[in-house]
Design a protein that fits this description.
The two termini are 39 Å apart. The protein has eight helices and 20 strands. By secondary structure, it is an alpha+beta fold. It has two domains: 17-59 and 163-239 and 346-398, FAD/NAD(P)-binding domain, CATH 3.50.50.60; 101-158 and 243-342, D-Amino Acid Oxidase, Chain A, domain 2 (2-Layer Sandwich), CATH 3.30.9.10. The chain has helices at residues 27-38, 75-93, 112-123, 133-139, 162-174, 228-236, 308-317, 373-386; strands spanning 17-23, 43-46, 63-65, 98-100, 103-107, 129-131, 150-154, 158-160, 179-182, 185-192, 201-207, 212-222, 243-254, 265-270, 273-280, 285-289, 294-296, 330-342, 349-353, 356-363. The longest helix has 19 residues, at 75-93. 46% of the residues are buried. Residues 23-29, 46-49, 55-58, 63-64, 186-187, 223-227, 231, 247, 249, 288, 338-340, 362, 364-365, 367-371, 373 line the site of flavin-adenine dinucleotide. Flavin-adenine dinucleotide binds next to α1, β3, β10, β13 and β18.
Length: 407
């Protein structure tokens, strides 16, 4: 077990009471812990596994980051903030976290990645270039898209390394005296404290082979990724309208040795099928469908086994994107599974729970959250310190929906 010792807090007299406990230290939780610890709060971070680890959503060597956000113009200021914070993290940690490759989106001229990206670029005055299919195929030889497909390119897109980003925050938090982290510890419940207590919540944990422990805190942040509903159900007897989507990610190499290291990251929607991918960062070029995975309500039901039909689906669809792509020309060199936690509209949920400003939940996923996790941590800091609140992430949009808590 890794721990860092806490000392005093700026505003606590009872040393056994934390100002904030953060549950779940993937990308969102670890950055939240960092910005709160840096601001002088006495914080405790609790993580079920090691940091980083492969069982959640914030692991591996690559996550796309891009500015002209086709999923909604509302995300643009948030992602610009995230870029600034990733840059600061690089400086503070001395680690290279971001690889600028450019980003291209594909689709027909009416598709969301094309229209949405152009809209975000235009509203925020961000530079983009438009490409025809002929220009795409000539300029980037991995791709061979059909005539009705076009592209929008932005220069500032690229790749974040999630393992390194999470670890960079982790190493920095470990140096802060008022921060404590306990790994390999499962939070089983969050309980409201008794009336009149000088703390608001009790967080109940069980570490492997150890007794149950109870930690007291004024505020609790739940950033448990796919396990969010498991914890909410155990703690408050309700769940949020979320679904867990198991994703298959494939790494390939051409049998003849062709490599594609100098291409942009890409996102797209062709024939109503969304996908994304990366240049070859060493292992092979990595790509996946976006939102075509098997869905379950509970993380415990996820089946990580890869079926032959999933592999076949790749060879059926990706000739629409890549040149000369078939079982005869391609070797699959690696396969991974990973979890999306989707909200009904695929936008983030960052809000207070139970009408209590001392309890915040983060479900910044739906398969596009990693790039924002630096800004998410800073935002939680600002929610606590300055009462900043972004309506767009509020749970109120699901009011009355089946599976939503009562507001
Ligand atoms: C295949 C794949 C590709 C993706 N590609 C991109 C991309 O290109 N760009 C992008 O921006 N985003 C991408 N995403 C989405 C992004 O990775 C996620 O949105 C993001 O990592 C979510 O971070 P999180 O901290 O909210 O959740 P997680 O990383 O899942 O962290 C939650 C943490 O909580 C811990 N936890 C849970 N329950 C408990 C408990 N009871 N007690 C203690 N700890 C607990 C878990 O162990 C975990 O560490 C992708 C996701 C996947 C799966």
């Amino acid at each position: 077990m890794n721990t860092t010792k806490s000392t005093i807090s700026t505003n606590n007299t009872d040393l056994s009471i934390y100002d904030v406990i953060v549950i779940g230290l993937g990308g969102s939780g670890i950055s939240t812990l960092y910005y709160l610890a840096k601001a002088g709060y006495k914080v405790l971070g609790l993580e079920k596994f090691d940091i980083p680890h492969k069982n959640g959503s914030s692991h591996g060597d690559s996550r796309i980051i891009r500015q002209c956000y086709y999923e909604g113009v509302e995300y643009v200021p948030f992602v610009l903030e995230a870029y600034k914070l990733w840059e600061e993290l690089e400086k503070e940690s001395g680690e290279v976290l971001f690889n600028k490759t450019g980003c291209i989106s594909f689709g027909n001229s009416k598709s969301n990645p094309i229209i949405g990206m152009q809209k975000s670029a235009s509203v925020y005055n961000l530079p983009v270039k438009n490409y025809t299919s002929e220009e795409i195929n000539k300029r980037f030889p991995l791709f061979k898209v059909k005539e009705d497909i076009c592209g929008v390119y932005e220069d500032n897109g690229g790749v974040l390394n999630p393992d390194k980003c999470v670890n960079a925050y982790y190493q920095l938090v470990k140096r802060i005296n008022n921060a404590e982290i306990i790994t390999n510890t499962d939070v089983s419940k969050v309980l409201k404290s008794k009336l009149g207590s000088d703390y608001n919540y009790e967080v109940v944990t069980a570490a492997m082979g150890m007794d149950t422990r109870v930690y007291k805190s004024k505020k609790v942040i739940i950033s448990a990724g796919s396990y969010l509903n498991t914890l909410l159900e155990a703690s408050f007897n309700y769940t949020l309208p979320l679904e867990i989507e198991r994703q298959l990610v494939t790494y390939c190499k051409y049998k003849d040795g062709r490599t594609h290291k100098n291409i942009p990251v890409y996102v797209g929607d062709i024939n109503n099928t969304e996908f994304y991918g990366f240049p070859d960062l060493g292992v092979g070029f990595k790509f996946a469908f976006h939102h075509k995975g098997r869905k379950t309500k509970r993380v415990e039901e996820v089946d990580r086994n890869i079926r032959e039909e999933e592999r076949d689906a790749i060879f059926d669809f990706f000739p629409n994107v890549f040149s000369d792509f078939s079982k005869d020309t391609i070797d699959v060199v690696k396969e991974e599974t990973c979890l999306y936690t989707n909200s009904p509209d695929k936008d983030f949920i960052i809000d207070y729970l139970n009408n209590d400003e001392n309890l915040i939940c983060i479900s910044a996923c739906s398969g596009h959250g990693f790039k924002f996790t630096s800004a998410v941590g800073k935002y939680i800091h600002d929610m606590i310190v300055n009462k900043r609140f972004i309506e767009f992430f509020s749970l109120k949009r699901f009011k009355g929906m089946k599976g939503s808590p009562k507001f």
